[in-house]
Amino acid sequence: MQKEGFYCPLCSARVSSDDNSVVKLKGKLKSDKFSVIVNIDIPATPGKYGGAFPEGVFLEEGAEVEFICPHCKQSLTIEDNPSHSALFMVNEDGKKKIMAFNRTYGKHSSFVFSVDTKKLLASYGEDQNKYVEKFNKDINYFGF
Ligand SMILES: [Zn+2]
């Protein structure tokens, strides 16, 4: 049984902190003339928002973050629904689900899906209604 926490859907590495309180990812911030990759910690509870950025990094509402796995360095953006990134979420009981979360700073939506059926199990955040329809279609999550 996999330990409770979050995992990269591409390389299966665990991306949760040891105490399961945060998910430790990398984020690419891009402008026309530069891009930078920073550490971003996000709350490990679906429906809780507010990423922690390194000192000196400030994002304005509407800024897009390309979340990247800190282990395999691959993008976690869902190709079929690029407004969101996705991770595997393993609950206490060992059940594995998919968690999708909004990539735009200030937008609050996250969705939890069954790995087997791809059906929506739960949704969170005040912006969820704008995105839920896109998730009600057959989405390919990184080939699974
Ligand atoms: Zn990975």
* Class from secondary-structure proportions: mainly beta
Strand order of the largest sheet: 1-5-6-7-8
Strand content: 25-35%
Q: Compute the number of structural domains.
A: 1
The helix content is under 10%
Determine the number of helices (DSSP H or I, runs of at least 4 residues): 1
Global outline: globular
Secondary structure: number of strands: 8
Low-confidence stretches: none
Main β-sheet description: 5 strands, antiparallel
Work out the radius of gyration: 14 Å
Identify every distinct bound molecule in the structure, by name, code or SMILES.
zinc ion
The run of helices and strands is EEEEEEEEH
Straight-line distance between termini: 20 Å
**What is the mean predicted local confidence, pLDDT?**
94
Write a structural description.
The protein has one domain (5-135). It has one helix at 128-135, and strands at residues 5-7, 22-30, 35-43, 66-68, 84-90, 96-102, 110-114, 120-124. With 144 residues, it is mostly beta strands. 6% of the residues lie in helices and 33% in strands. The strands form 2 sheets. The protein has a 5-stranded antiparallel β-sheet, with helices on one face. It has a 3-stranded antiparallel β-sheet with strand order 3-2-4, with no helix packed on it. The protein binds zinc ion. The site of zinc ion has 8 residues, from loops.
Layout of SSEs?
Elements: E1 5-7, E2 22-30, E3 35-43, E4 66-68, E5 84-90, E6 96-102, E7 110-114, E8 120-124, H1 128-135
The structure holds zinc ion.
The site of zinc ion has 8 residues, from loops.
